[in-house]
What does this fold into?
Amino acid sequence: MKLSLFTENKILKDALIELTRPNRLSHNPQVLQTDHFVVVDQDLAILEEKLKTVPRQRLYFISNRSDEENIALIQKYQLSHLVGFDEKNTPLEIMQHYRIFEAKNFWGTAHYLSVLPDTLSFSESKREMSKIPELIKIQSWQDFFDTPADYVNLMANELVSNALYNGPEGKRQGANYPVDRKSPVFLKGSELIQLKLGVDPHAAVLSVIDSFGTLTKEKVIQSLHRSFQEKTVEQKQGGAGLGLYLSYSHGHQFIVNSKLGVKTEVIIVIEKNKRYKTYKSRLKSFHFFDEAHAHE
It folds into this structure.
């Protein structure tokens, strides 16, 4: 599979040439094949041109704009992939995703994590949530800035709550399913929610998987765009605004994997570094994989 790169950034081009296998990278090609993995760096005119012929799931746009501007671009073009530019990490992120397409399987943390993660399962909303801080505590947070565990705890709680309270509603219509998060909720045995967390030499990776598959790309983009535009977070029946906004804001890669009506996986990647300022200033990346279009 060719990686077709449209860029005038020599540092990015050279880094990707070094990371790809010989003759796998094509720089500013005139012709694209249907299975090409296409990366466009910064240029909106080229992005608009490629969107006319390249499926969105195969098109990666690298942007150095602000996170708010990037969410507006994702919303305007309904992008599936936007990579926040970082000189060191962007080539590595592009190659992670290139390998995902080569593997033809986007599920799971193994694409982003070199160790096996620790796992928790949830079937109810009260007692089991107390396991999350215990799982976070046993991870090795050395070589990180002081507070990633706090952010991971916040994101994990919000994403698990989204799955517990919002995920089942599509299957429970007319059953008076509770949406008030103060109400207890219990899932059936086949509906267990899984949380996975691991830390390797490069990153911390959090994954939350449900068995409902109600989170569409349109819902995710609309929620994030509204949160950035209005500086508020909407919580309504079927909504998951706070968890998505916090997860996008506190991670570096925000990844949603979806098989509609079957399951959803939200993965957050936090790159390892010791400086809080570097962590906060890192532009965020957005990725949405839809199994219905995985092989287009």
Observations:
- The radius of gyration is 19 Å.
- The longest helix spans residues 148-166.
